[in-house]
Amino acid sequence: MIKASELLATAYEEALIGLGEGGIPIGAALFDSDGTLLGRGHNRRVQQGDPSLHAETDAFRNAGRRRDYRDTIMVTTLSPCWYCSGLVRQFGIGAVIVGEARTFSGGHDWLAAHGVSITVLDDAACIDMMTRFIAERPDLWHEDIGVAE
């Protein structure tokens, strides 16, 4: 069985890509239950000028259409915001792996209360990346997700 930290590596790579593009460093990936990558993406709301293009949304769109999502795992470097938590609930994604929830604790508790399996890894690299980003770019952080708390 594939480890959660191995799945997180894909989302973390996406976050680094987003950071390199001048965007918010949040990455995500959607896997099936055996660890096969279905889609990956990163927050591109700055790069594309699209406020709905969060990392989880990008990964979900890149995964393509499926008949159902119950056996899928959404992996994200940061606790999903309410918008992305809604996506998980709307499509019945069965599990979410969260890199970190220290800098932002979004809707993962709500998802857990509604039957979604939640794993928070408290990953040091994810925490460090977001902590540095928030300190260096508070204007960009508070433009979007930072105001949702």
User: Helices and strands, in N-to-C order?
Assistant: HEEHHEHEHEHH
Calculate the mean pLDDT score and round it.
94
Please list the strands of the largest sheet in the order they lie side by side.
2-1-3-4-5
Tell me the major beta sheet: 5 strands, mixed
Low-confidence stretches: none
Task: Name the assembly state.
Answer: single chain
Number of helices: 7
Quickly give the structural class: alpha/beta
Measured by DSSP, the beta-strand proportion falls in: 15-25%
Given the C-alpha coordinates, what overall shape results?
Answer: globular
Question: Describe it for me?
Answer:
With 149 residues, the protein is of the alpha/beta class. Helices cover 44% and strands 19% of the residues. The chain has 7 helices and 5 strands; from the N terminus they run αββααβαβαβαα. It has a 5-stranded mixed sheet with strand order 2-1-3-4-5, sandwiched between helices. Helix 5 links the parallel strand 4 and strand 5. It starts with a helix and ends in a 6-residue tail after the last helix.
Summarize the structure in short:
The protein is an alpha/beta fold and 149 residues long. It has seven helices and five strands, in the order αββααβαβαβαα. A five-stranded mixed sheet has the order 2-1-3-4-5, sandwiched between helices.
